[in-house]
Amino acid sequence: MPPFGLFKKKPSDIPSPEQWIPPTPPTDTLTIQQAQDLLQTLESAKVKELSARLTRIRESAVESLKVIDTLAKGMDRENIKLEGLEQKLKSVVEHSKKTVVSSLKREVSLELPLPQSANDAKKFKERFENMMKRFGEVSGSHSKVLNAFMKKHSGKMKEEFEFLTKLLNETKATISEFDRNREPIIRCGNMLNTALQKISSIKLAESSAKNIEKEIEVIERELNKLESDLAAVSGSKEFEQASISVRDIAEAEKKQEEFHAKIKDLFSHLSRAFTKYSYGITKETEQRLKTMSDEPWEILYEKNVAPYSSLLLEIRRAIGTGQIQLKDSDKVLQYLGTILESLPDLQQKAQALKTEIESFRQLNIDIVYKFKDLEQEIVQHAEGLARCRQDLEQQRQQAKDKSEEVDAILREASEILAQLTSQKYSLRYH
Predict the structure, then answer these.
(1) Cα(18)–Cα(23) distance, rounded to whole angstroms?
(2) How far apart are alpha carbons 210 and 395 in whole angstroms?
(3) What is the mean pLDDT of each run of 10 residues along the chain (430 residues)?
(4) How far apart are the C-alpha atoms of 299 and 342, rounded to whole Å?
(5) Partner of 360 for a Cys bridge, out of 28, 53, 249, 307, CB 3.0 to 4.6 A?
(6) 50, 178 in Cβ contact below 8 A?
(7) How far apart are CA 421 and CA 426, in angstroms?
(8) CA–CA separation, 208 vs 186, rounded Å?
(9) How far apart are CA 143 and CA 150, in angstroms?
(10) Bridge partners, residue 427, by sequence
């Protein structure tokens, strides 16, 4: 058997990095998909380079492990000679030898994984690290026995451990270098993925903008028709006549409201008298008092006001006889007299106003309601149109902002590609 480590391959005996540089696309303009394909090609090349480097390291490590396996078998067969007082240590020495041999054989039997991918490389390093850790533990804990009683094997084993340690360090350095070289590829790939997400948002915004544009066209057509209908209605003689009728109704209703307010004010002077009279009366009388207090004009629309006249006379008698005590009884009596005296005239005026309003309302004013409905629809359409235009502007602005963000991302990604390939590319997404 040749001396240990004499014919081991040197870990540095690997292809140069230039051999792994893939051909770059002939064009200087790339789509995002082409840029992603290029990144994949670059990463694949770096993975192949990593695999080649680690495969050479693994081959050297396997050769060294074969030597360690041979050493372990030799140690297992060897009978350790002990002299004199050393006999006392026989059990300790035998135990140490057995432990070391067992540990070495176990580690050697576990195969180092073939590093064909980035994930394999990680597993290769972890397996290598664990193996060297256990080699260190077993050789360290039994170093005194190995150095004292198995010098021949101990020295050769130490040589192999040192060689494997160099291989492990080169493995770590190689993987660290791979990670550093791969980082721009990963970063560029993440940028392109972000750009694609933003492009998707741009497409959604543009699609939404097109739908809003169609909606605006529909609203504008409807609005033009409504405005045309409104102009036709407002310009008709029927509308002119109906508008006069509506004004007459409004004026009559205003006169009626003013008349009701006057009646309310007239009866308000009797409120304290109504309150004092309300004790111990029938429900019917109580309801009449409530009507005269809250809506006194309603009694004027009754067919028969006699019950109210009688009630007012009864209240006047109660005040006159002192049955109802009031501070300003004279004034109240005066108002009672005025109301009782003018009640027939007030009833006649109330009926006349009611008849006038009813006669106006019998006229056809539907066209006025149609005009108001058209006005309301025009307002609603105008508001809807304003909202749509605002939404459209927001969608367009969003698409513009996202486009600028994508352009910035692609410029940065193209700079990374230039660093990786030594060729300037322009990335596009349109």
Answers:
(1) 11
(2) 10
(3) 39 46 67 94 93 93 89 73 51 68 80 87 92 79 54 77 93 94 95 95 94 96 95 89 85 92 93 86 90 93 90 91 87 92 92 86 79 94 96 95 95 94 88
(4) 13
(5) 249
(6) yes
(7) 13
(8) 33
(9) 10
(10) 30
